[in-house]
Amino acid sequence: MKKTLKKKYPFTMLFLCFSSLLMIFPFIWMILSAFKTSSDVYAYPPKWIPSSFKWDNFAEVFKKIPFFRFYLNSILVSVTQTFLQILISAMGAFALTKLEFPGRKKIVTFMQSSLFVPEVVTIIPMFLIVSWAGLIDTYGGLILPELSCAFTTMLLMSFFETIPNDLIDAAKIDGCGYYRVFTHVMIPNARTALGTSSLFAFLTHWRSYMWPLLATNNVNLRTLPIGLKYLVQETSTEYQVLMAASVMAIVPVLIVYLLMEKEFVQSITLTGLKS
Amino acid sequence: MKRNVVFTIAVLALCVIAMPAMAAGSETKLTVWYAVSGDSGEAFKAMLEKYDAANDDVSLQYSYSGNYGDTATKVSAALVSNTAPDVALMAAGPLYTGARNDFFIESKINDSDFNKNDIFPGVWEYAEYNGRICAVPYGISTPVLFYNKAIMEKAGINMKNPPKTWDEFFKVAEAAQTKGNITGASDFWGFDVTDVAWLYKSMLSQNGNTVIKVKNNNVSPAFDDEKSVEVATFWKKLVDAKLMPVGQHSNAEKKFLSGNLAFLVASSARIARWAKDPSLKVGAIPMPYFKKPSVALGGNVLIILAKDQKVKEEAWKLVKYLARAENQTGYALKTGYLPIRKSGIALPEAKETIEKNEMFGVAFDQLDYAWSYWHFEQMGTMDQILVQVIDSIERNTMSPKDALQKGAAELQAEIDG
Amino acid sequence: MKAEGRNRKAKKYSMAKDQKRAGMVMVTPLVLTLLCLFLLPVVLVVIMSFTNWSMTTPTRNFVGLKNFKFVLNDPRFWKAFWNTLYYAGSKLVLETGLALFIAVLLDKKIHFRKFFRVAHFAPVVVPITASSLIWLWFYDPGIGPLNQVLTALGLPPSQWLYNQNTSMASIILFSIWRGLGYNIILFLAGLQSIPESYLEAARIDGANERQVFFKIKMPLLSPVTSFVVMMGIINAFKAFTEVDVMTPNHGPLESTLLIVSYIYDQSFTRGKMGRGAAASLILFLIIFLFTLIQKAFGRKRVSYD
């Protein structure tokens, strides 16, 4: 049985090996660059392997910016945003796909159209609103304005649609209220979708730069992407230090991804519940 | 015994809690934003820290506000919502003071302990709006012509007698390109520039063109006359002779540092970092010229945005401190920005640095003929238009004359609104 | 009998009411965030679009439709429009197709599956400051590896980002590379949620792999596909970061000027916030039209099934 599961696909293997190599290329380059000296960076012909593997660039990052503080802020802000966003969106997506109530279609259109406006134009109006609300230089002002629920809700909706209505009806007949249906039927059945959308939400917030810069003046509230900019000079950049900081910045993302990866692999058995 | 300990701790705790509260009563709070990062950011922050520690009656709150563009966005948003900082170090500062009719700094610069005549006159021009001073020039830079020492050596070119005019330079660059290929790369060039508009404006000034005309405080473009066409034609010659690659200016610094470019025009603010790196064999020579030597100023200025009179006075004290010869020159030597004061160049530490690396001397000497035009609202638009004009000249889609005239018309339309 | 029927009716009625209430309660937080974070700023943007709001000076006068007229008569805006259409069209077709193809391969039970998945996701986590540097080196006309490969194959080298004819294509390639991982994950998640029993039932009925893919997987994947396509359209029209880092000053002869770069340019580089606001409302309408077209197509396909 196991043998038939792991069939050999020569074309698939070959293609995937090739494309993986292409995709992972910059990743390797980034890690190697984090160890380079500035003369390695500009060497001609281009140098792949640094002349020595020293941790100088990493130490430099800690010397130049309050890295841990920025790191903690980034984690705090992105995790809170992701959590709130998923909570609001999951409830919304459930209501919009599985429940019948007035104004439903209008809300969907309204929500969809909120994605049509580029952030570069709304950022100044948003700043005015947040400063009227007195939230500049607070965690609230950092977190709330960037909740992008529309995207997450649309994403969850497209997955919720694939969950059969029979499941909900069955639970209703068993005497569940709609809130219970949400927590006990939808959430467990949409784990893949929830995992995917949390990952996307986290990634967006993790690398957000312009809003956190506008919304904070206090260095203690600053996040990692702004920290990276401290290392980039207007006129000249020490690429190797920036690379070292970037490598450290993506570690949590990778950890989150590797944890989430499980969610994709375990395919959900809808059929089992259905029958 | 136990009670005493508890009591002492309680008193101490009270003191700790009360201290900042008491201090806050008499202290003036000053917020400062700065648009410089890396070494420049560190050096600027260090000065603020020093000032904060030395003055008990003020407490500074300072933060990096992003690069020039981001800081501009941040300051304009803050101005609308009344959350602007009291002092800002940023590019195009006069547009946030003079253009709003705030000439507070002008009323202050005659302070005897400020000594405004010590500051280079060309540098003052960089802080004007409608002919009136509304900022204090600070991180000032000029374009500098750098060269790769190894390439010159291989080509047998002696830089003791550098070329003076652009025509002389053209021949030297040609020789460097044909005889000085040190890397053996097929992609090897004689000359390039990182900031196209900056060099072009400098060249215009060298050829007797003022870039803009001012009549009754109304600005209009002047870069479409015969003198400008001459400059553009020379520019085209550099491309046609394959001395300069077409439209790869964003790539120029990389080419230079990897040894595939003989001459590079870039900001003087690169000097400090390049001088620190022993593996880089880089030198600098005075900028060649057409009719007379001239370089356009660039960089950032200090502005005061405080509203309250008392805070304004405190802000001015801070600005004055930062602009002192020893402080500003110290900043310049750490970053590669230029000293703004004549007395700053005469300081022993400045002389010492010049002796150690001649690039500093070349950049500092250029201050004698550094030049600037007034700040005006469409100056960002003008730079962008100039970049497009030169791009279409380099790519041969338009003749220099047509391109310049089209660009000037576009800028005029923007000014007319 | 009659009483029972009434009873059932009442139950149904209460169920509908129950559903209505639950639906409205659960959608409230979402609607609230949309009102505060979308409607409110957009109202301000609309107001701004009718004024000569400037970034530097405090002038804010009502100017009527002047900004809209300017944008619609500006050849640069139309250049940006056609560039964006080219960008959006090519990116959408290539990226969606490629992502679906790779997702199907990654869905197979093969060795090193986990490694392959992580590898295809890698570009998504690399910060653009890092990835743009390596792609700028890839595209270097002199020392870049892409030209070295071309010359080794006996083909003429290209100027890539530095020529007006190839600059946009180079940007598209870079942005597909960056965004592919997202779409692969979406498709994979969709493919994974297709019940194995459906596929097995089809296989037992004698369907080959191709038939299984087109007759079973594709229809079941259609909500995900239409989501990917819709977001693809929206995001392609809103693209900005890639062109901004790869081609400063909008590339050779402004060949990589996109609509959002135009908006950014007007609002911040030129300081004309009102004009930027007007341009973004026009962009809003453009995206709206394109999503309508996409919806019409989507419906058509579903009705064929």
H/E element string of chain A? Answer: HHHHHHHHHHHHHHHH
Distance between the ends of chain A = 25 Å
Specify the helix fraction band of chain B. Answer: 40-55%
Characterize the quaternary organization of these chains: heterotrimer
Can you name the CATH architecture of chain A?
Orthogonal Bundle
Name the CATH class of the largest domain in chain B.
Answer: Alpha Beta
Shape of chain A: globular
What does this structure look like?
The complex is a heterotrimer of chains A (275), B (417) and C (305). Chain A has helices at residues 2-5, 10-33, 38-41, 56-64, 67-98, 104-113, 119-132, 139-143, 149-160, 165-173, 178-189, 191-206, 210-215, 224-230, 239-265, 270-274. Chain A is 71% helix and 0% strand. In chain A, helix 5 (67-98) crosses helix 9, helix 5 (67-98) packs antiparallel against helix 12 and helix 9 packs antiparallel against helix 12. Chain A contains 16 helices and no strands. Chain A has 275 residues and is mainly α. Chain A has one domain (66-274): Orthogonal Bundle (MetI-like fold), CATH 1.10.3720. Chain B has 2 domains: 26-141 and 299-371, D-Maltodextrin-Binding Protein, domain 2, CATH 3.40.190; 143-296 and 378-416, D-Maltodextrin-Binding Protein, domain 2. Chain B contains 17 helices and 15 strands. Chain B has helices at residues 2-26, 38-54, 68-80, 121-125, 149-155, 166-179, 196-206, 226-240, 252-257, 271-276, 309-322, 325-335, 342-345, 348-356, 358-365, 379-394, 400-416; strands at residues 28-34, 58-64, 87-90, 128-129, 132-133, 136-141, 143-148, 189-193, 212-215, 218-221, 261-267, 282-285, 295-296, 298-304, 370-371. In chain B, the strands form 5 sheets. Chain B has a 5-stranded mixed beta sheet. In chain B, helix 16 packs antiparallel against helix 17. The longest helix of chain B is centred in the first third of the chain and has 25 residues, at 2-26. The model of chain B is unreliable at 13-24 (pLDDT under 50). Chain C has 305 residues and is an all-alpha fold. Chain C folds into 2 domains: 1-49; 65-304, MetI-like fold (Orthogonal Bundle). Helices cover 77% and strands 0% of the residues of chain C. The longest helix of chain C has 48 residues, at 2-49. Chain C is flat. The two termini of chain C are 41 Å apart. At the A-B interface, helix 7, helix 13 and helix 14 of A face helix 2, strand 2, helix 3 and helix 9 of B.
